[in-house]
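User: Is it possible to get a 3D structure for a protein together with its bound compound? The compound here is FE2/S2 (inorganic) cluster. I've pasted both below.
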Amino acid sequence: MRMVGAKVPRVEDRRILTGNGHYVDDLQLPRMVHAAFLRSPIAHGRITSLDVEEARKAPGVHAVYTGADMRALSKPIRSPLAQGATPEIFPLVTDTVLFVGDLVAMVVADSRYLAEDAAGMIDVEYSDLPAVVDYETALDPGVPPLFPDLESNVLHTATKEAGDVEAAFAAADRVVEVTLSQHRIANVPIETRGAVADYDPGSGQLTLHAATQAPHGLRLQMAQTLDHPMDRLRVLTQDVGGAFGLKGNIFREDFCLAIAAKQLARPVKWIEDRNEHLMASGHAREERITAQVAVTEAGDILGITAALDMDAGAYPGVPFSAVSFTGVISLLLPGPYTVRGYRCDSRVLATNKSTYVAYRGPWAMETWTRERLIDMVATELGLDPAEVRRRNLYEGADGDRMVTGPTLAGITTRECLDRALERIDYAGFRAEQEAARAEGRYLGIGMAAFIENAPGPKEMRPNGGFTGGEAARVRLEMDGRLTVFTAQSPHGQGHETTLAQLAADEMGVPFEQVRVVHGDTQVTPFNILGTGGSRAATWGSGATMVATRKLREKVLAIAAGQLEIDPSDLQIVDGVVSPKGVPGREIPLARLAGQMTLMPQTAPPGTDPNLQAEERFTGEETSGSGWSGGVHACIVEVDLGTGGVQIKRWVVVEDCGRIINPAIVDGQIRGGVAQGIGQVLYERIPYDVEGTFMAGTFMDYLLPTSAEIPPIEIVHVEPEDDEDGGVGFRGVGEGGMIVAPATLTNAISDALAPFGARVTEQYLPPAEVLRLAGVV
Amino acid sequence: MSERTVQVTVNGVPHAAAVEARRTLTDFLRDDLRLTGTHVGCEHGVCGACTVLLDGEAVRACLLLAVQVDGREIRTIEGLATGEQLHPLQEALRDCHSFQCGFCTPGFVMTAVALLEEGATPTEEELREELSGNLCRCTGYQSIVAGVAEAVQRVNGGTAR
Ligand code: FES
Ligand code: FES
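Assistant: Yes, that's possible. Here is the predicted structure of the complex:
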């Protein structure tokens, strides 16, 4: 049976459902000790005194490290992918704390309890400095830079201009202008951050057991920062309890753990608690865009200008800082629409807040901005928002290009829009809305479109793009089973299942006989990103497929030699090689592999008995437009008594190319939509004007539950099967979250249209809804 | 720190151990008994990842101290399957692709076991209410609700559709 395309039960589920997973906190090593960090209670200030003597003498304490101690043991942390002005930073603060939660000292003790006891004995005095908390202060040239080695709190500026902006605005009947703000939120995986660093003084081997998305990236950065030889540095990652971009970062705590492990020659464990997580693991989004849209009365969108500000927090993320995402935002903002003139100016600002980190579609500000603007244009012109979209959408014809350059040939946005509106019964809804308004009930419908270069058209990624593609290795074991070594590092995406489906089909072995190995830098191919950026569906899959094909060729060559037959006359079915249509001459893979491994000298002349293959997939074999995308539509009812928003329906029409496992794809979409709903209605990271952090628990940072997230209806726009063995799978991890906030805010805005509400803030808790409705 | 002896039966196995008074039940189960199937997601009683059954009732192990369970009976996710044979709830959750990263899983599973053992036959809406004390960041809940509904069907023959 063909596995690709089937709803195959996940390989991962048995262990997860029986409590036999291996998450980093499950690890207990002999002689292991535990770390706790002392963190800054203030947003900005100089450390004037730091006394750790009492803590050093506390029961069970092995070591206490200050910023000065760590500085002597570490090089500055510098990402090989750093962009923008980059300050010199060290694992712990050496002088000035820069946000609430900044790392002041580290205690290592026999237990976490004892480490925290001792951390409480450390005496620190700070002399407060004024905090930079908002855009205006960060932009003020009179405010001293947070980093003494940088000239300003503006870390980066850039301008992207495309098409003829002047002509577009000159031809406009009107210009719609607005400032849109997206608030600060956080990834909040249910498993917090954590790691165990282990050092063997005998071999000099440093092993990091880490809850990471990018084991190779962590290994590389660790080697560089600690000057540790790479032949003695291994990162091991097993189950990871969610990440959503956060755990693609390499954290200052990671360096502290490795340094302490080397110093103490003991395994050192640190598992972040939820308070630390909310305060200091990193935050996402917080961006604003001031935009102008040039339109005709008929609803043609001629031009867009956008000025983007991003709040990057205090320390640049490693390896990807906020600056890394401005390019994608400014590239994709025009989306699948026929905009002719476009400019985007971006600025990235340093503030006294936790670090900006990637969160599922980190560039989503482009989609929210564009799709909110389209609705505003429709309102201002008295047009139907669906019609304005239709009027401006590209068809996906061969010559269609986004104003910023990329070809849009083959995009299916228009079909997705039509199908979404049909499915949600747009016309019927408008009638219902009318009737409801007459009864004083406020229903609204929202729609939004997105496209994502996951992987993007071929011209955007020559030779495999900036990572040069991705490699995988496969090995035929002596019992005929297949092992796939992937560069992906999953944390819930089910790659042990999907990659096994692909390898099983490519090789012709039963699905149950394929094992996917990930997360061990000693055996998996290098990939600085690991899993993230909706890359796995194309790159992880493509790599697995080309490596398996290569191995299959080797196997067929051997069997062909043994049977004295042409390889093209052979097939592999259920782990058995046989001449097509000629029974009685079967060679089980177990026999072939056993023989080649034990007696390689018996390999037929000109064949290779080494039954492994490693191949790099550069994306040449991809089929389809390269764009993932789709349209979401939802219906809400707003309660003017409470300000509550009830989501009555949510329809997704999605094109991610061919689907490997529909249940996994749908899970990715639903999870993303749920996060997008949380982002609009419940979640916000609050700081006060002094930079005090205000959401230390799940009582202050609200995640949506099963009672709030509605059923999500999904329709797939899937192309025909690739006859020629092309790789037609595209990324689907981020789309749901990219487009959900736009869909929902548009629906709420539509519900509140009778009140002339203008939704410009993305966070819409009850109080804001009531304000928009003019109730309070 | 003063230590006290705790006698507790976990998944049918009796244990006696000396623990510090302040040791949480999660640390006791995970670190002392090495039953790491129970997870810790917040340590303040909101996420539900640490849910275990205490004398048959679903409780948050992070809000209990080990000394509080002296003389009582605990069940954790490790105690559900019989050898290779999964519990019908586990089978239903697997069949419905209920989970992704699996970190919230022990909490949902133990909450749902308690529900099943009460003989409950909730509607989907009631089920969404029942499960709303557990946080999942990966799935958007629909698959979990579907999985538990399926188990309710299979075990209690109830509605939950
Ligand atoms: S860990 Fe117990 S409720 Fe979150
Ligand atoms: S499956 Fe990841 S938190 Fe629920």
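Chain A touches chain B through 56 residues (CB under 8 Å). Residues 27-129+188-280 of chain A form a domain with the Aldehyde Oxidoreductase; domain 3 fold (CATH 3.90.1170.50).
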